[in-house]
């Protein structure tokens, strides 16, 4: 779903194919978690972890436990804020267009696209939710929390049973190159 969304995002298509792939590979976990928060029914991650198979996939270190707690907190905050589709789209664009991504050929357009996404989100929130002056900041504060989660934790928790030991960045690259935009 995230690959299709990225593939059909017109501003993304203006970037070089190499930069597109790098940005997708760098932001996949944030995009996945945003999609999960947006489209899933409310759930408690602890329920998923009661399954012995899930517990066996995850390391038992404190860092992983903290990340699982962070994912739960993100989902809870997301439900509290209850962002609409436009806000979710802007947040996805903000995490996708990360100018700090290593190896980018052309950083300036990525920086400009991230700035535009932030401005669009800010303008939209102020116009649509004028009685919620902290809403824009609360939405933006979710981004560092999303970035704090290691990709391996998301891979092990949500994808290992399906894809096995195939690196998700490789799989995403293959999917992205094969995916066609089906939007009108």
Automatic annotation (TrEMBL):
InterPro entries: NHR-like_dom_sf, Nucl_hrmn_rcpt_lig-bd, Nuclear_hormone_rcpt_NR2, Nuclear_hrmn_rcpt. SMART domains: HOLI (SM00430). The keyword Transcription regulation applies. This is NR LBD domain-containing protein. It comes from Acanthoscelides obtectus (Bean weevil). Keywords: Receptor, Transcription, Transcription regulation. Residues 1-179 form the NR LBD domain. PANTHER family: NUCLEAR HORMONE RECEPTOR.
